[in-house]
């Protein structure tokens, strides 16, 4: 009898990743990078990356789904991306070598997202203990490939030694929190609530839906989301959001187009921090708004003037962000503290005003482009 030997797992695996359209927050960047490698994700962005909100403690963020305001990371990642199945795993319940388990998942085409102690990985300048998530996208005999921020703050693929990953996986959120507290570190309340339930893994598995069918958004829904945005309608007031637990935001939360006033006010107040991540998200929002309006014009007959003018605003937003970023890199500060804070605030405010006028004019000109479009009176437009 001839013995049939199963083929050995490949010694090297590199799963595909594309450039995510938004990388400010990893709960968007990781799934979008997976979808982008398959030419997907654009429809999700058109429909979901519209509504903004701002709180003093969290800064400017995008409201993509009811659980995105939760203090628990597992719920934040539950964004219902079409084409990706996500499974939550408690690594403390696994038997055997965690590195072998991660290699197995990668060999099956699954992208493991794992919690690590970033201070042990050497991917950032800061060597202090800090719990964060990284996405694994490949491995060879002695290393793992990850998608994570590098020392320059860029999100990119990079290799780390398996021994370093093994050490970084040995992290306990609650214990780490107690250590930082004893050392006098200030940890935000929302972050404390999240760390107490970690570490955790999230397995991202592309499904057949990502390979099949047409990736196109519903223009009626897109128009309705734009109406909510320009009229500052709180997404927390929507029925699906009210039914979610642990997603409450403070009463002074600013919504929609008005959320941008939060970073404007922060820039105009001396001594108030405005993290660079807020400016990055603001720029991404303008860039994706221009892309969305171009999509509406090309495929659904919306007036093209809006897309052209929004592209100009997106370039202005990018130039403004880059001027701040250059100062931040020169001073090695993680927050905006340049002498030109007032002029930066003026620039953000000017772009916001033009955007508001642009969208209002667009709504005035769009009557009924097709039977599938939502009526503007029902969308709550100005």
SSE inventory with pairings:
Layout: E1 13-14, H1 26-36, H2 42-48, E2 51-55, E3 59-63, H3 73-76, E4 84-89, H4 98-107, E5 111-117, E6 131-139, E7 143-149, E8 155-161, H5 162-169, H6 173-182, H7 189-195, E9 201-206, H8 219-230, H9 239-242, E10 254-255, H10 260-268, H11 276-300, H12 305-331, H13 341-365, H14 376-379
Antiparallel strand pairs: 1-6, 2-3, 2-10, 4-9, 5-6, 5-9, 6-7, 7-8
Helix pairs in contact: 10-13, 11-12, 12-13
Describe the structure.
The chain is α+β, with helices and mostly antiparallel strands and 382 residues long. The chain folds into two domains: 150 residues, no CATH class; 155 residues. The chain is 43% helix and 15% strand. Strands 1, 4, 5, 6, 7, 8 and 9 form a seven-stranded antiparallel β-sheet that branches. A hairpin with a 3-residue loop joins strand 2 and strand 3. Helix 10 packs antiparallel against helix 13.
């Amino acid at each position: 009898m001839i013995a049939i030997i199963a083929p050995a797992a490949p010694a090297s695996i590199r799963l595909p990743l594309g450039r995510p359209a938004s990388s400010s927050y990893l709960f968007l960047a990781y799934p979008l990078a997976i979808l982008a490698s398959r030419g997907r994700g654009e429809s999700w962005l058109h429909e979901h990356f519209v509504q903004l909100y701002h709180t003093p403690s969290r800064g400017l963020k995008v409201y993509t789904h009811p659980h995105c305001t939760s203090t628990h990371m597992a719920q934040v990642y539950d964004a219902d991306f079409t084409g990706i199945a996500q499974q939550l795993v408690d690594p403390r319940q696994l038997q055997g070598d965690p590195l072998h388990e991660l290699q197995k998942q990668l060999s099956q085409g699954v992208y493991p997202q794992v919690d690590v102690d970033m201070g042990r990985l050497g991917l950032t300048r800061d060597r202090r203990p800090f719990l964060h998530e990284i996405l694994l996208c490949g491995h060879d005999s002695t290393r793992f490939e990850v998608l994570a921020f590098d020392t320059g703050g860029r999100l990119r693929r990079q290799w780390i030694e398996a021994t370093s990953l093994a050490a970084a996986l040995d992290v306990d959120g609650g214990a780490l929190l107690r250590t930082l507290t004893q050392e006098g570190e200030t940890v935000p309340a929302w972050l404390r609530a999240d760390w107490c339930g970690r570490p955790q893994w999230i397995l991202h598995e592309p499904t057949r839906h990502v390979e099949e069918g047409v990736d196109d958004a519903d223009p009626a829904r897109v128009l309705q989301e734009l109406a909510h945005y320009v009229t500052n309608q709180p997404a927390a007031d929507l029925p699906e959001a009210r039914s979610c637990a642990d997603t409450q935001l403070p009463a002074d939360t600013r919504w929609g187009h008005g959320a941008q006033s939060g970073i404007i006010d922060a820039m105009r107040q001396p001594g108030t921090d405005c993290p660079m991540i807020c400016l990055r998200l603001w720029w991404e929002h303008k860039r994706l708004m221009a892309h969305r309006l171009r999509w509406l014009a090309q495929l659904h007959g919306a007036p093209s003037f809006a897309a052209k003018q929004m592209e100009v605003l997106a370039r202005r937003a990018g130039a403004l962000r880059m001027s701040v970023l250059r100062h931040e890199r020169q001073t090695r500060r993680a927050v905006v503290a340049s002498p030109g804070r007032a002029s930066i605030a003026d620039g953000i405010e000017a772009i916001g005003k033009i955007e508001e006028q642009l969208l209002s004019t667009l709504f005035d000109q769009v009557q009924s482009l097709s039977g599938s479009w939502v009526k503007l009176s029902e969308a709550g437009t100005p």
